[in-house]
Write a structure and sequence with these properties.
- By secondary structure, this protein is mainly beta.
- 6% of the residues lie in helices and 28% in strands.
- Among the domains are: 57 residues, no CATH class; 318 residues; 76 residues, no CATH class.
- Strand 5 and strand 6 form a beta hairpin.
- The longest helix is centred in the N-terminal third of the chain and has 18 residues.
- The N and C termini lie far apart (163 Å).
- 28% of the residues are buried.
């Protein structure tokens, strides 16, 4: 068959695609009769007869398969001839360099740059010779120089074996680095400067770039504390409008604090540190540091006991050249005695103008005179002055020998309240007087002549008061006292002189309010009188006792006692009374709530009270205050209704009582006009025998039921016909 595209192989080759495929001729037709060369595929050549024992290729394979096997065998041999056949071993310098791009394995040559080693490799020799020429080895000497840390370990080093210490740093800010030949110490550079316009913390005068001096922080008014976490806290003490002066005798200053305050073992060895009155450095017992040696390790200190309170008062007064108790430098500034388990002993008084003294701790005062004497013009102005003493709850201010408090007020007779001299005892604590010496029956806690005092109060007592064996108050003239807490004479199970008149008035005004409570205690001995009144002199007409919404506890024969015929204004309202009036040596209850030595009835205002275990003698007291008002009380578990008296409803209405009011209708009936079977009360005896009419005795005030009309005539007796009425 002819080939029209012979030698056409795209661009000149033989193209067989247009010819019929012949299986037995490798896919090509029989050669065309043309002049182009014959193109044969290796796939058309079968049964290669050559053997390849070196490569391990069998004979008889097609040419293509034989060529592929040869290629694979050559590649395997080349790969097997790689670096894995020659390797460097050991830890020395590597001799085998590797395979180059031509597949050649390369070995490094051996040289000696400093010619200290002679290298020879004779021709046709299998060895390389290394030799060291004969040399003189120098002798080395290493020593530590300078005053710094030694690098050479001189203990373990020898002349031929030197031991060098390694370099470390405990300071994490120092960085140590090592390269081939050096060790670098990298210390950061710090810069500290003061910034802002405030006080400089860095001491710029003595500080250097490598040595910084930081000033310490101190304060006389602020509390500076080092916290557990390393911080420093600066606290402002809680203060009132006028900062307080603090006292605490448990505070002992350090030697440095003593020096800073002015002490010096050489130039000022007797300097007494008294404190500064701050919460961090309160006033304390006077302290002097001293030593018998020059070394500070032998320092001792001398403490003057019981001087802490006086030290605070001295500072309150100030420089005696310019100030005094009368005119203190820190007038009105509060002094606070801080609590401690040991308490305080104070030998002085409290005669300081405008003193504002507060104690949070027990204090025992041993002075013999007045605790406060406002009548002393050396200490207080004659017109206007005040002292304020506060005793906090649970604390006792005890006076063992003191005469108490004295204040007569000023001489301003006008009640304009523009000025006043007043002692204020406040707080919930106790002021206790334990004196039991001579004159205890005439000795009182609260004293004074009772001048008018511009109409103002002489005493305001809000804390508890107790006198063991002496009187509590003696009120005169126009003295005025207000009590808001427990005022007690004696104590439970104590023995007290039965004649003691602990609560006595010759004039003035005593008032109990709110939590006010009056106690007359003496379970083992009894007391004759409780609250006594004996107006005299200018006190006449101005003797007023008021108790409202308070309490009174008593163990005495007579509770409220009027000892003369002068007027006493007694007002007791909404008060609870506990205790009893009894006949001494017996358990017999008597009508001892009121005692009156005057023949006239005592006119009192006694309303809405509850008094247990006692009674009232109505021959001595008039609870209607001359028929001015009605009252109701609970006395001895009985309801006692004391009513105003009128002859009839018309009369009651004319006197102005309100509709719905209860009154006692009383009609006087003469003997001879009695109605048999009617109950009467004897008013006058006259010539009448009330026994014959059914009475148990001829006694005024007895009730009887008439058994007859009686006999009329001149001078006959009379009786009251009484009934409870409501004004309609």
């Amino acid at each position: 068959m002819s080939c029209s595209k012979c030698n056409d192989y795209n661009s000149g080759g033989c193209n067989c695609t247009s010819h019929t495929y012949i299986d037995n001729n490798c896919g090509c037709p029989e050669p065309a009769e043309c002049s182009c060369k014959v193109y044969l595929s290796s796939d058309c050549i079968n049964n290669v007869k050559s053997e390849f024992p070196c490569l391990g290729i069998e004979r008889g394979l097609p040419l293509t398969q034989t060529l592929e096997a040869i290629d694979s065998a050559i590649c395997d041999r080349i790969n097997n001839m790689g670096e894995s056949q020659i390797i460097n071993v050991g830890g020395g310098a590597e001799v085998y360099k590797g395979v180059n791009l031509l597949g050649q394995k390369q070995l490094k040559t051996i040289t000696s740059l400093d010619n200290s080693v002679v290298i020879t490799s004779p021709l046709n020799s299998d060895t390389i010779d290394l030799s060291v020429p004969d040399v003189t080895i120098p002798t080395y000497t290493i020593v530590n120089e300078g005053i710094g840390a030694k690098v050479l370990d001189e203990v373990n080093s020898t002349e031929t074996d030197f031991k060098l210490k390694s370099i470390t740093s405990q300071n994490t800010t120092v960085t140590i680095t090592e390269d081939v030949s050096t060790i670098d110490l990298d210390v950061p550079v710090y810069t500290v400067v003061n910034q802002g316009d405030g006080t400089k913390i860095l001491d710029e005068t003595t500080s250097t770039p490598t040595n910084f001096k930081i000033k310490t922080i101190v304060s006389d008014t602020l509390t500076i504390l080092e916290e557990a976490d390393g911080g420093v806290s600066i606290n402002i003490p809680e203060v009132s409008q006028i900062p307080a002066l603090y006292v605490n005798n448990l505070y002992v200053p350090t030697y440095n604090e003593w020096v800073k305050a002015g002490g010096d073992l050489v130039t000022n060895p007797t300097f007494q540190f008294k404190g500064k009155g701050t919460s961090s450095q309160p006033f304390t017992d006077s302290i002097v540091y001293n030593t018998s040696l020059t070394s500070l390790t032998s320092l001792t200190k001398t403490i003057t006991p019981n001087t802490a309170i006086q030290n605070s008062l001295d500072i309150y007064v100030g420089d005696l050249g310019s100030y005094s108790r009368f005119n203190p430098q820190l007038s009105g500034q509060q002094i606070i005695v801080q609590n401690n388990p040991l308490g305080y002993l104070y030998t002085g008084d409290f005669n300081y103008t405008n003193l504002n003294f507060k104690t949070e701790s027990n204090i025992q005062c041993t002075l013999a005179g007045y605790a406060v004497d406002m009548d002393n013009s050396l200490y207080f102005d004659t017109l206007d002055a005040s002292v304020n003493i506060e005793v906090v709850n649970g604390v006792t201010l005890e006076f063992t020998q003191s005469l108490g408090f004295n204040n007569s007020g000023n001489l301003n007779a006008v009640d304009d309240f523009t000025s006043q001299k007043t002692i204020r005892l406040i707080g919930e604590g106790l002021i206790f007087f334990g004196y039991n010496g001579v004159n205890n029956l005439t000795r009182y806690i609260f004293n004074g002549n009772g001048n008018n005092n511009s109409g103002a109060l002489h005493y305001v007592v809000q804390c508890k008061i107790r006198a063991q064996n002496q009187g509590v108050y003696l009120s005169k003239n126009k003295n005025r006292m207000d009590f808001y807490n427990v005022i007690e004479s004696g104590s439970f199970l104590s023995t007290v002189n039965i004649a003691l008149q602990a609560f006595h008035m010759t004039g003035g005004q005593i008032r109990f309010y709110d939590k006010g409570e009056l106690r007359i205690s003496s379970e083992t001995s009894g007391r004759t009188y409780g609250v006594t009144f004996q107006p005299t002199g200018s006190g006449v007409g101005y003797c007023i006792f008021q108790m409202n919404s308070s309490k009174i506890n008593y163990t005495c024969n007579y509770l409220f006692v009027k000892l003369n015929d002068k007027a006493v204004n007694l007002q007791v309202k909404n008060t609870i009374g506990g205790g009893a009036t009894v006949i001494p040596g017996t358990s017999t209850i008597v009508d001892g709530l009121f005692e009156n030595t005057d023949i006239s009835k005592w006119l009192v205002e006694f309303k809405n009270n509850n008094f247990a275990f006692t009674g009232i003698d109505f021959n001595k007291v008039d609870l209607t205050s001359a028929n001015s008002y009605s009252s109701i009380n609970f006395i001895g578990n009985n309801i006692i209704e004391t009513l105003v008296v009128y002859a009839n409803s018309e009369e009651a209405a004319n006197y102005g009582i309100a509709k719905g009011s209860v009154f006692l209708k009383r009609v006087t009936v003469n003997a001879g006009s009695f109605i048999i079977g009617q109950e009467y009360r004897i008013a006058t005896i006259g010539t009448t025998s009330f026994i014959a009419l059914g009475a148990s005795a001829n006694t005024v005030g007895l009730y009887f039921t008439a058994q007859g009309t009686g006999t009329g005539g001149v001078g006959v007796g009379t009786a009251y016909l009484e009934s409870r009425q409501i004004l309609q």
